[in-house]
């Protein structure tokens, strides 16, 4: 089997095809197909942007966090997400189907170790829409975790530690420095871990360095594993007439397998295949396979990728959620205007003679739209020290009263009313910048301007 000129890996989740050994899984369940198709669409956008770089991606992770995001959004923002995903998470039966898929992934009949978890971290003092938390729990079977993002480093540690625990230490720094700040209000996270042993391991003695052909025409020497065995195999022709080899490499539990696809001719770009990939095509591969003896030569590799998902998601029509002036999070909180400030995924995968070890974490960071308005006292200002109990408002003055309220002038001083009950005595040489307020001094202990020239005065008795 010849190697593709560009190595791309669609892994960790629904792209790991379930085999016949599954206890109750129906391979073409609607939710699996919809989630896979959406994840693959994002993958296609990522591959286009990656050019010659290797890519490993988790379609299940991105589908999970976007499904959770649906529940927090409203209006056009939610509609764009639903149109891109081709399903509504609140549709009857959709959330239970997602939960059944989750249970299937975690089921004891999977001899290979696979685990997935979702989490939602919310700013502790943020007022949520009434009923959001119980509704979120009903749909996703996970509770809202409250954190204080004003303690930036502690909040970042809490999220990263959760990811680290649920990926068994493979991803320990999902959120780097600056990923969250005091404007962060919500972080949605999915973590996925997979440890699968090949049903037919590669003999270590067969691993040797061979040339790998890169997409730019150059070659590189990499360790290649090799084994001759009977594999499920098929050939596939793209609409433009390109031939591909498709081979299935099962894991020992028979519920999961890796499908490997490579163009027959090394000069054919992998994009000819990734551009038409979807759940139905993967199903067709699986359904047309024949068990044949083949010599499989596969790179022994480890990859770590960090993907900025913003542009791929925007290219699929989900634009409003990234725009501070248009994002609608009214289903989550109406206390502040929010938007998605970051969308990212980190994936690590290692493929060797014994099997595959992989993990992924996908996160959406939702922040307040703008920084708090700055109030900088770098000009003349007024301050009042007030005793609140004695400063309670008294009876209203009659509307016809000639006694005016204090007037705050541009210079930051108070102009007294014409019939003020007290008259300040000016200290010789001082500036007449501050006059007594026209109202009583009820409750006010100190009243001072921040001018550079401060008046000095005494109150008459």
From TrEMBL:
Transmembrane segments: none annotated. It comes from Bos mutus grunniens. This is Plasminogen activator inhibitor 1. Serine protease inhibitor. Inhibits TMPRSS7. Is a primary inhibitor of tissue-type plasminogen activator (PLAT) and urokinase-type plasminogen activator (PLAU). As PLAT inhibitor, it is required for fibrinolysis down-regulation and is responsible for the controlled degradation of blood clots. As PLAU inhibitor, it is involved in the regulation of cell adhesion and spreading. Acts as a regulator of cell migration, independently of its role as protease inhibitor. It is required for stimulation of keratinocyte migration during cutaneous injury repair. Forms a heterodimer with TMPRSS7. Interacts with VTN. Binds LRP1B; binding is followed by internalization and degradation. Interacts with PPP1CB. In complex with PLAU/uPA, interacts with PLAUR/uPAR. Interacts with SORL1 and LRP1, either alone or in complex with PLAU; these interactions are abolished in the presence of LRPAP1/RAP. The ternary complex composed of PLAUR-PLAU-PAI1 also interacts with SORL1. Interacts with PLAT/tPA. Also interacts with SORL1, when complexed to PLAT/tPA. One of its GO terms (cellular component) is extracellular exosome. Coiled coil: none annotated. Pfam families: Serpin. Keywords: Glycoprotein, Protease inhibitor, Secreted, Serine protease inhibitor, Signal. The gene is SERPINE1. It is found in: Secreted. One of its GO terms (biological process) is negative regulation of plasminogen activation. It comes from the Eukaryota. Residues 413-437 are annotated as: Disordered. Residues 40-389 form the Serpin domain. InterPro entries: Serpin_dom (IPR023796), Serpin_fam (IPR000215), Serpin_sf (IPR036186), Serpin_sf_1 (IPR042178), Serpin_sf_2 (IPR042185).
């Amino acid at each position: 089997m010849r190697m593709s000129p560009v190595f791309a890996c669609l892994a960790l989740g629904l792209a790991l095809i379930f085999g016949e050994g599954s206890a109750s899984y129906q391979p073409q369940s609607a939710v699996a197909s919809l989630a896979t198709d959406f994840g693959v669409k994002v993958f296609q956008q990522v591959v286009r942007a990656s050019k010659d770089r290797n890519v490993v991606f988790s379609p299940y992770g991105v589908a999970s966090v976007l499904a959770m995001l649906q529940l927090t959004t409203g209006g056009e923002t939610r509609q764009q997400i639903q149109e891109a995903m081709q399903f509504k998470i609140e549709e009857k039966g959709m959330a239970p189907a997602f939960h059944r898929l989750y249970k299937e992934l975690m089921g004891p009949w999977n001899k290979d170790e696979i685990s997935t978890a979702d989490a939602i971290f919310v700013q502790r003092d943020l007022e949520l829409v009434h009923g959001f938390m119980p509704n979120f729990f009903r749909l996703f079977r996970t509770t809202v975790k409250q954190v204080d993002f004003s303690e930036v480093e502690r909040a970042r540690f809490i999220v990263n530690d959760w990811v680290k625990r649920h990926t068994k230490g493979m991803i320990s720094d999902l959120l780097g420095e600056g990923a969250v700040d005091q404007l962060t209000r919500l972080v949605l996270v999915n973590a996925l871990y997979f440890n699968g042993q090949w049903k037919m391991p590669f003999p270590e003695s067969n691993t040797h360095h061979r040339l790998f052909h890169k997409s730019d025409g150059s070659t590189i020497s990499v360790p290649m594993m090799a084994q001759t065995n009977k594999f499920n195999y098929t050939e596939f022709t793209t609409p433009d007439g390109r031939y591909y080899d498709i081979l299935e490499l099962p894991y020992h539990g028979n519920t999961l397998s890796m499908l490997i696809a490579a163009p027959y001719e090394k000069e054919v770009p992998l994009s000819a295949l990734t551009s038409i990939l979807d759940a139905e095509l993967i199903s067709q591969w699986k359904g047309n396979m024949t068990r044949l003896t083949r010599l499989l030569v596969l790179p022994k590799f480890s990859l770590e990728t960090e993907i900025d998902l913003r542009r791929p998601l925007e290219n699929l029509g989900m634009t409003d959620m990234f725009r501070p002036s248009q994002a609608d999070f009214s289903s989550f909180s109406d206390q502040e205007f929010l938007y998605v400030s970051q969308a990212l995924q980190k994936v690590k995968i290692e493929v060797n003679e014994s099997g595959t070890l992989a993990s992924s974490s996908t996160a959406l960071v939702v922040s307040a739209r703008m920084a708090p308005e700055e109030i900088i006292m770098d000009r003349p200002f007024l301050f009042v020290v007030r005793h609140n109990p004695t400063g309670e408002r008294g009876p209203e003055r009659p509307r016809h009263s000639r006694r005016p309220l204090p007037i705050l002038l541009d210079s930051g001083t108070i102009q007294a009313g014409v019939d003020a009950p007290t008259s300040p005595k000016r200290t010789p040489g001082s500036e007449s910048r501050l006059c007594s307020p026209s109202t009583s001094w009820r409750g006010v202990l100190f009243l001072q301007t921040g001018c550079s020239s401060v008046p000095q005065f005494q109150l008459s008795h």
